[in-house]
Amino acid sequence: MKRTIDDLAVFGGPAAFLNTVTVGRPSMGDRERFESRMAWVLNNEWLTNSGPLVSEFETAVAEIAGVRHCVATSNATVGLQLAMHAAGVRGEVIMPAMTFAATPHAASWIGLEPVFCDVDPVTGLIDPDDVKRRITERTGAVVGVHLWGQVAPVEELDRLAHDHGLVMLYDAAHALGCTRDDRPAGSFGDAEVFSFHATKVVTSFEGGALVTDDAALAARARSMHNFGLGQGGRVEHVGTNAKMSEASAAMGLTSLDAFAEVCEHNRRNHELYAEELRGVKGLRLHELDLEERSNYQYVIVSVDPAHTGIDRDEIIRVLAAEQVVAKPYFSPPCHLMEPYRTETPQRIESAEWLAAQVVALPTGPGVSAEDIRRICDVLRLVVADGEHVARRLTAARNAPS
Ligand code: T4K
After folding, report:
1. How many independent structural domains does the chain possess?
2. 207 with 74: CB under 8 angstroms?
3. What string of DSSP letters covers 132-167?
4. Which end of the chain has the lower number of beta carbons within 10 A, N or C?
5. Using omega within 30 degrees of 0 as the cis cutoff, is the peptide bond preceding 121 cis?
6. pLDDT score, position 231
7. Which of 98, 100, 116, 194 to mutate to test the pocket of ligand 1 (most atoms within 8 A of CB)?
8. Ligand 1, closest atom to CA 207?
9. What is the pLDDT of residues 348-397, one digit of tens each?
């Protein structure tokens, strides 16, 4: 255990970990089951184009989302594009500034215009009042984001979209298995999109899924994700290639087998972080609503430099030297990043404030209770004399090499 700041690896002490502990380690499930599924795929010689494993994966995801239709995709970014295309969205799309670049990119890439709105300063979730303020005659859709394993305020957003005749979509990349008022993510708005990227709670290497209860929208999306082909192999729509492969589905199904166990492991990890960081000045673990279900895939801590004496980015540097990869999900907020930044950027206050403060800490099946205690030991040591650590980091950076 490190006792003084001289023991920190960033100042020459031994690293707290021999092997990297990181956010985003894949939850791959049982390797033998994956290999046996892959053997089946290879023997079957059916690799893509809505094969049997993709169909099985779609059925499983639709069940988790509590909807009738699921179209598996090659990733969530094209899944969002597909959702917007299939729903016939035009013009401006309102979305939170506090999200991953994929959300605005999905709109921009297909010629739509992202319009960023603010989020709740505590939950980080899209603020429906600010959405309302930004609706114009050019608005075509709202994309809510279920951030960090929490579901957006869907009842207000769905009502708002309905009252203004807008398409309502959700970026549910973080929210597989999460609920709001006991209803699962995936069952709200016109359609929702999950991600099964390597870093997500369920992975299919790369992958996504559009889920909806709207049969016509699902049919258009299914056709559009396969070059717009329809009945008899005729092209019916503009289309793309957004299909999931059988290899991805084999991984997706295997990862899904472990899903409940992973969520429970993540829940215990989250609880331990809460215990370890309780009362630590300037560090606030982002709490989750215990009445709801979450996948606990994101352990988010806000760093308030007014109390720690050291800012979030310096803390990430200190952790990196200890072999701990923590990530500023998401910074900068989208309206301040290229290509969305403007000459005189508007203020989107809560998103900016959160984006400057939050850091995601490692969790997942590979992160043990002992790992968490060690990470939190480092954090407590750093913020106990944060100003001193920050000064030394600055001096080390400015020292002639
Ligand atoms: N909407 C939202 C709100 C999202 O967060 C995302 C994706 C999307 C939409 C789009 O979903 P997809 O189109 O990807 O399906 C990562 C992911 O690339 C991205 O999928 C994810 N969000 C975003 C939050 O995080 P990076 O740049 O942080 O990834 P990277 O490569 O630095 O990985 C993070 C850590 O994960 C590494 O330090 C180590 C670990 N890792 C990563 C990979 C890829 C592994 O251990 N194994 C791996 O294979 O963006």
Report:
1. 2
2. yes
3. HHH--TTEEEEEEE-GGG----HHHHHHHHHHHT-E
4. C
5. no
6. 87
7. 100
8. 15
9. 999 999 999 999 999 999 999 999 999 999 999 999 999 999 999 999 88
Q: Is a pLDDT exceeding 80 seen at residue 98?
A: yes
| 36 and 140 both lie in a single domain | yes
Task: Give me the percent of the chain exceeding a pLDDT of 70.
Answer: 100
- What's 13's domain CATH number? 3.90.1150.10
Q: How would residue 44 be classed by pLDDT, with cut points 50, 70 and 90?
A: very high
Within a domain: residue 350?
A: no
DSSP secondary structure letter of residue 253 = H
Same domain, residue pair 291 and 216:
no
**Residue 2 bears catalytic tag:** no
Q: Is 10 in the pocket of ligand 1 (CB under 6 A)?
A: no
Q: In DSSP terms, which residues pair with 96 in a beta bridge?
A: 117
Pair 127, 203 in one domain: yes
ipTM over 0.95: yes
- Residue pair 148/174 in contact (Cβ under 8 Å)? The answer is yes
Residue 94 covered by a domain = yes
**Residue ranges making up the domain that contains 178:** 31-257
- From the CA of 25, give the closest atom in ligand 1: 46
Same domain as 276, residue 249: no
